[in-house]
Amino acid sequence: MPILAQQDKEQRRRNLLDAAWRCVARKGFAELTVDDVCEEAGVSKGSFYGYFDSKQALLGALLDDDAAALEARIAEVQQSRGSARARVEGFVRAMLLRGEDPARTQLLADLWSNVPADPALRRRFSETVRRRRALLRSWIEEAAAAGELREVPANALASILLALGDGLMLHASTDPAGFQWRNVRRALIMLLEGLDASGS
């Protein structure tokens, strides 16, 4: 059997992940089978198991993929020359943009149902949330120190904003027509404007 170059291996794994995302968008992760992913990707089950040893391992890989995509957007916000407050708003926008992707909203819903039964998955998810909360908290503290936002409990506000993002995605997975994401973004930015130091 020919040995695949590392770049080819990465591309095949990427193709499997992309196929899995398409399947999740159509039917959710809970109902998804390895056969579904293989059919969508046009590969054998042997190829699938060469990259993921179980469906649960695929869930972990999809979560990592989602986290990497969001963190790439957050990194762009972090590298911008805007104020700390602008970075907070950029973080919120980046977080909510995920909600417009039905596969990601469905995956989050399935994640919440899997987390209680899987300690490793819970630790992984908790660590991701802690990292995001710490970064957002630091920007909120910086914005308050610069006089751009009122003094607020920064960790609490960071937790609220993260929970709002996740909660809205869970709602969207059960009622996709319940609200429009662009209106949610506008409303959240207006709420942040209410914390503007100049309005105190």
Structure description:
The chain is an all-alpha fold. It folds into two domains: 47 residues, Arc Repressor Mutant, subunit A; 141 residues, Tetracycline Repressor, domain 2, CATH 1.10.357.10. The protein is built from nine helices and no strands. Helix 6 crosses helix 8. The termini are far apart. 20% of the residues are buried.
Compact overview of the structure:
With 200 residues, the protein is mainly α. It has nine helices and no strands.
| Low-confidence runs of at least 5 consecutive residues | none
Shape verdict: elongated
Distance between the termini: 70 Å
Average pLDDT over all residues = 88
Tally the helices. 9
Per CATH, the architecture of the largest domain is: Orthogonal Bundle
Share of residues in helices: over 70%
**What letter string, H or E per element, gives the SSE order?**
HHHHHHHHH
Judged by helices, strands and strand pairing, the structural class is mainly alpha
What is the level 1 CATH name of the largest domain? Answer: Mainly Alpha
Taking all Cα atoms into account, the compactness measure Rg is 19 Å
Biggest sheet architecture: none
- The number of distinct β-strands equals 0
Q: Domains counted in the coordinates: how many? A: 2
- Kindly identify the CATH topology of the largest domain: Tetracycline Repressor, domain 2
Say which CATH homologous superfamily of the largest domain is assigned: Tetracycline Repressor, domain 2
Approximate strand percentage: under 5%
